[in-house]
């Protein structure tokens, strides 16, 4: 699968997702989208058929970001947004 990590996630998590299942992963930062509105990130993910992985609850609004147009949106809600917890969540869910 093809994923894009939002800028609110540590870039090192791209390696975790890629290694977890051989996925193609890039980041909002790598693509030069840092600081861009959520709509720009959404449209880029739709155009490139990438699943967005984010901590941003705004992406759960189906009227603003229709899920049927996307390859998927994963909004992580770890108990505390710290790297080890996020990494563990991604490892658990990126296995085939």
Q: Report the count of strand segments.
A: 4
Q: Could you tell me how far the N terminus lies from the C terminus, measured between alpha carbons in angstroms?
A: 10 Å
- Biggest beta sheet summary: 4 strands, parallel
So what's the overall shape?
globular
Verbal overview:
The chain has helices spanning 13-21, 38-47, 83-93, and strands spanning 2-5, 24-27, 51-54, 73-75. It is α/β, with parallel strands linked by helices and 96 residues long. The protein has one domain (2-93). It starts with a strand and ends with a helix. The model has no long low-confidence stretch (mean pLDDT 89).
List strands and helices in order, with pairings.
Elements: E1 2-5, H1 13-21, E2 24-27, H2 38-47, E3 51-54, E4 73-75, H3 83-93
Parallel strand pairs: 1-2, 1-3, 3-4
Helix pairs in contact: 1-3
In brief, what are we looking at here?
With 96 residues, the protein is α/β, with parallel strands linked by helices.
